[in-house]
Design goal:
The structure is a homodimer. Chain A has about 230 residues and is α/β, with parallel strands linked by helices. The first copy, chain A, has 8 helices and 11 strands. The first copy, chain A, has one domain: Rossmann fold (3-Layer(aba) Sandwich), CATH 3.40.50.150. In chain A, strands 3-2-1-4-5-11-10 form a 7-stranded mixed sheet, sandwiched between helices.
């Protein structure tokens, strides 16, 4: 299950896209931070180490929150149980709302964005990652090989938004496919200015360390978005 | 060649994505408009009909400009020959810079954007369409069929930016593949705020009229971007 993934064992260092997300983050010193879908709390603890004034980690999994609490000693970090589909947050309370690979499970993304927008202080930012819609869209999301041995990502159904079933980690997990356009337009309509859009792929340095990541240049797996208000 | 395409014969009405682009445009009444890659001048004449104060159509093809001039009687519309790779425009002169399916041929997109940004009046806008990078990226951009008869767009090389050769209309036309992220980030860095991102696909009304367009929902063909300054 999820707890055996490299990113669960090694934390941020085990997540290929972490350096790219980190590069999008502002200096956290003195900031009030919320992490939506905090899992085991790796980012929350990192944010506290960076000098965040307070960090609120929210997750729907009480199991994960229990481990997050057990591994966190810093009193500036709090965890709470929350379903992002019906999230409530105090108004104008955060300088940064962060989320890693959680929003693509959310059905009411517009509702969530409205909640986040209200929860941000003036000038506050939302910075998050999701599975890339190119990765999520296909009816059969598995690599094909062409006549020359090249890899093919079998894209289809891109414009058909809505549920995608995956049997990754657990049976019958439901993801919500939204096109890149829909995600960006929902952000803009919700009062966020798009600051940076990163379709993650391995850097040359990444490939020197992990030659097997080369396939990730064929199609993007992660979408990282940084916003301003 | 290009002159026999439906959009060349029928003009804007022959371009599937035109209603979606039109929906992004501001009221043109009294505006100074530039059309980069104006071709036969369909959009320039339409803009004048909408009440634009002045319309400048630029294209690298003197043949197309000759036909554009021959078919234009409105004195508010001017045409000029220009290579968008080394475009010069008067500063702070336009309320709207428009371009349809031209920018994906441009190598120095950052340079072009800087020129456009300087040419816009305060509050001016850039609104344009390009081939979608999903459409342009593959090494073999031709539909495949899966075991169930479903269509597959053979995506690969998405993260490998740069030249794409196509033999569409003419042999050896060179297009420039940029990821969605690169295009959006270049716009943002150049001083444009992203207002709307449309990955065109046929509407239900489109499909009722043109059932054969259904395949266009499998992957986006056009990318329409609206910006503000």
């Amino acid at each position: 299950g999820y707890s055996r993934l490299q990113r669960s064992v090694e934390g941020l260092a085990g997540a290929a896209e972490w350096p790219a997300i980190r590069a999008l983050l502002p200096d956290l010193y003195g900031l009030e931070v919320a992490d939506l879908g905090c899992g085991f709390g790796w980012f929350c603890r990192w944010a506290a180490e960076q000098g965040a004034a307070g960090v609120l980690g929210l997750d729907v999994s009480d199991k994960m929150l229990a481990r997050a609490r057990a591994e966190t000693t810093d009193a500036r970090v709090r965890y709470d149980s929350a379903d992002l589909e019906k999230l409530e947050l105090p108004k104008a309370s955060f300088d940064l709302v962060y989320s890693s690979l959680a929003f693509h499970y959310i059905e009411d993304f517009a509702g969530l964005l409205a909640t986040i927008r209200r929860a941000l202080k003036p000038g506050g930012r939302l910075i998050f990652s999701i599975e890339h819609p190119i990765y999520m869209a296909p009816r059969q999301p598995a690599w094909l090989t062409d006549e020359d041995g090249g890899r093919i990502w079998p894209l289809n159904s891109y414009q058909i938004e809505g549920k995608r079933l995956t049997n990754w980690l657990a049976e019958g997990v439901v993801k919500q496919h939204r096109t890149m356009g829909t995600t960006l337009n929902l952000l803009i309509k919700s009062g966020f200015a798009i600051a940076h859009v990163e379709e993650w792929s391995p850097s040359d340095e990444d490939l020197a360390l992990h030659p097997d990541w080369a396939i990730e240049r064929e199609r993007p797996m992660f979408l990282l978005i940084s916003t301003r208000t």
